[in-house]
Amino acid sequence: MQPSDARRTPPDFVQPIPTGPYRGLNPTTKLVIAVAEALVAFTVRGWTGPLAVLLVLATTAVAARLGRRLVPFVIATVPLTASILLVNTFLFPGATDVILRIGPFTPTWSGLEAALQATLRVMAFAMSVAVLVLTTRPDELVADLERRGAPRGVTFVIGATVRTIPRVVQRAGEITDAQRARGLDTQGRLWRRVRGVLPLAAPLIFGSLNEVEELTMALEARAFSAAGRRTTLRVFPDGTGQRQLRWAAALLTAALIVLSIAGRLAFLP
Amino acid sequence: MSWLSRQFSTRVLVLIPIAIAINIVLGYTVQTVLKLPIYLDSIGTILVGVLAGPIAGAVTGAAANLIWQYAPGIGGGSIGPFAITAAVIGFMAGLWGYLGVYRPRPASGARLWGAVVIGVAIILLLASRIYNNPAYTDPNIGGYPDWVFTAAIVIAVVASLSVAAFILIRRDAAGAWVAAAGALTGIVAAIVSAPIAAYVFGGVTGSGTDILVAALRQGGADVYNASLGQGLFSDPIDKTITSFVVFIILASLSSRVLARFPLGERLVRPDTAS
Amino acid sequence: MSLILRDATYRYAGVGHPALTDISLEIVPGSVLAVVGANEAGKSTLCLLAAGLAPTTIGGELRGTVEIDGLATIGARPPELAQRCGILFQNAETQLSGTAATVWEEVAFGPRNLSLPLDEVVERTEAALSALGVEELAPRDPGRLSGGQAQLVALAAVLAMRPAYLVLDEPTSQLDPQGTQLVGSALQRLAQESGAGLLVVEHKTDLLASIAEECVVLADGKIVARGSAGDVLADPRLDEWGVEPPSTARIERAARSAGVQEPMLSALATRP
Question: C57 to chain B nearest CA, in Å?
Fold first, then answer.
């Protein structure tokens, strides 16, 4: 234990600064990049947008050595991409360029093209989320936004929500276990299942709402509503290069959005 | 500006994360356990809107979707871009809060039956506007398989009966207003969501309702109208049920607790105020 | 300078009758005042009133005066009150801010809100942690502590505000015996060393007997007895007020009714 009178900065375990390629970037930089990637993937139509974003993502993923950790995020998109591919390939309105006829089913090339493009968009978006989530802890992002002057309410809501969700999930699990021990049916017929949700939902909702009053008082008792910027505990490294990168990404994204809406990007494949 | 800061008092800021967590946990549970074409992932959003106001409601909705998408461990597939819809739902809930829609209105006799008639009439009126929507009926833009039309009628009847039962059993005329508010919110939500689903996600969302989208396209609807058709089917049901759930929650809270929220006064039964 | 309530009558918002009537008491820095009473007697309301949370944060109507070091609680802003009087609630879990990744940050939450310079934030946090002997909990996740540990962390978080007065509303009631022991001895140390004025509400009268100098009994929102802790806690009317007397008093009473005479009686009644 370090002698407390020698310390003038928080201990190392408080908001540790991440290191390593890409991870070591300032949290706000990583956020701006992720948002830019998502917006470009969605607004630049066709193949170019999503593929360009996927290329950028692949580079950053390799640099940050994410590899296998991306797999769960890919798997999570499967229900959506499967649906996109099936519905659009087989049922694309107005398409006549049939690939082949299998009984009543008539997949079309236009449909397939639209499906693949939509799939790439979804993949690019999901990967941009994955890279951000895997390289940035919510705490460090909130702390950096706070240092830059984000309103206290915003940072509190983000930080508290991220921590409240696991707590509520755990409480839901406890309630369900308790109910199951009393004979609650979570499989079975629809009506039973509906009746089953109620004994879960009611204690969960009311238990959570009861906390509101106590936590409000506890926060006020610790000067939560005081004016002024909260003291920064840790400054995450930032530099001119990163600042320029952020501005460049933001401006490029804005320009692409405008051009896309104006139809000027139709020449891209 | 003080109107804005009152909407975000400490109490509201504490409520929002809890409301978002309720959204996510219940929404996830409902989708995996019930497997019905409803989401029930807006309970928290509407609750905040009614208690704290439109801006707070909008923020809750948007934040819920974005955090669900980006939170480590629970990330969702396609929910992020629908933050816009969620914000609109929260905003509308705030408007209903201002109008006192969710205030219990105990009634009996003629007034009660009047409320039943009004409630059922509103449901059927909104339902007819939905089912007359070109996405369902215009042979040029889309058709519909018969089972969709039948299902829609059945749902409208069941909804009317449920609303009537609710009003009569609880002897509370507010059921009519809550049903109307929920159905309207659902319609607006569908209209806002359709372009997002159509242009961003190729018209589907990866959930069970995609079957309906497929059916509508089979009938000839284009991408946008198929998404709109699906939305107009699921969203009003979902948001009406959600509104009733929120109504029951609010009715179970004491006036002491309600009064501390910015719009709490509008939820207090006039006879229980001290 | 003191925390003073004068003829205070308080009614919650949305409720017809007052929860507390004509309460007058004074807490001086360095002293410990115990408050006992049956459930629903108004003890928790008294805590909220003394800390200024009622009426400022929870609304309601206050008649009479509540002043903390000269600052009237009506019309004061919560951050001002927070720096003068801290409050600890029964349920440790719901007091934690839910935003801190480590216990250290949880304790630093209050000083950070006051926008204090970083070295002062660090100093206050370290001092609060060591005052309660929980330095080794500093890197832990606040959501994964035992009840007693969480309560100590919550107390440290309040102490980091350096209030002149501290109100504790049944701090051990939701704890198991181990937690109670932990928090109880921390309170004893606090009472002796901190120099703050304490108002402690507890059912565990044994704990109060060991730390409090003065005691007040509440029943139906009014003060029905007051005096030195020794006298009040030995008062035979405690039972009718819904308060369980401390074990020493119970032993003495049982011995007396069994026919034990002096000097054995005094020997039994002495605290170990």
Answer: 9
Q: Is A206 on the interface with C (CB under 8 A)?
A: no
The answer to whether C233 and C208 are in contact (CB under 8 A) is: yes
Is there a contact between A160 and C98 if contact means CB atoms under 8 Å apart? yes
Residue C271 has pLDDT above 60, yes or no: no
ipTM over 0.90: no
Distance from CA of C136 to the nearest CA of A (A): 8
Cβ(B65)–Cβ(B83) below 8 Å: yes
> pTM of the prediction?
0.89
What is the spatial distance between Cα B264 and Cα A65, in angstroms, rounded to a whole number? 51
**Buried b / exposed e along B181-197 (16+ C-beta atoms within 10 A):** bbbbbbbbbbebbbebb
Candidates A140, A146, A215, A231, partner chain C, best to mutate (most C CBs within 10 A)? A231
Q: Are residues C111 and A231, on separate chains, in Cβ contact within 8 Å? A: yes
Largest interatomic CA distance in chain B: 61
Within 13 Å and on the Cβ side, how many CA atoms surround C43? 29
- Partners of residue B34 on adjacent β-strands: none
Which residue(s) pair with C72 in the sheet? Answer: C67
CB atoms under 10 Å from CB of C42, counted, come to 23
CB atoms within 10 A of CB A222: 30
Cis omega (within 30 of 0) for bond into C263: yes
> How far does A1 lie from chain B, in Å, by closest CA?
32
**For residues A118-138, average pLDDT:** 91
Distance from the Cα of B39 to chain C's closest Cα (Å) equals 27
Listed range (B65-74, B101-110, B162-171, C173-182) with the worst mean pLDDT: B65-74
CB atoms within 10 A of CB C260: 14
Q: Residue B256: which of C15, C78, C98 has the nearest Cβ? A: C15
User: What pLDDT, in 10s, does the model give residues C190-231?
Assistant: 888 888 899 999 888 888 888 888 999 999 999 999 999 888
Q: Are B92 and B55 in contact (CB under 8 A)?
A: no
Sheet holding C214-219, edge to edge: C85-88, C165-169, C197-201, C32-37, C214-219, C222-228
Can you give the residue ranges of every domain in chain A? 18-136+239-261, 147-220
Chain B closest-CA separation from residue C146 CA (Å):
23
What whole-number distance in Å separates Cα of residue B72 and Cα of residue A131? 11
Q: Is A63 on the interface with B (CB under 8 A)?
A: no
What angle (nearest 5°) sits at the alpha carbon of residue B178, between those of residues B172 and B179? 105
Nearest CA in chain A to B227: A87
Residues 148-177 on B with a CB inside 8 Å of A are none
Nearest to B25 among A194, A204, A219 (CB): A204
Q: Name the most confidently modeled range: B212-216, B254-258, C65-69.
A: C65-69
**Least CB–CB distance from C112: residue in A4, A163, A230:** A230
- Token reading at B233: 């089917």
| List of residues 6+ apart from C164 with CB closer than 8 A | C1, C3, C29, C68, C69, C84, C85, C196, C197
Hey, is A207 helix, strand or coil?
helix
* Closest residue, chain B, to C61 (C-alpha): B274
CATH class of C3-269: alpha beta
Please tell me the distance from the alpha carbon of residue B107 to that of residue C187, in angstroms, as a whole number.
Answer: 55
Q: Which residues pair with C85 in a beta bridge?
A: C165
Q: Provide the token pair at A211.
A: 């906390």
Note whether A129 and B69 are within 8 A (CB): yes
Residues in chain B with CB shorter than 8 Å from the CB of A200 are 29
A11 touches chain C (CB under 8 A): yes
State the average pLDDT for chain B: 83
b/e A144-178 (16+ beta carbons within 10 angstroms → b): bbbbeebebbbbbbbbbbbbbbebbbebbeebbee
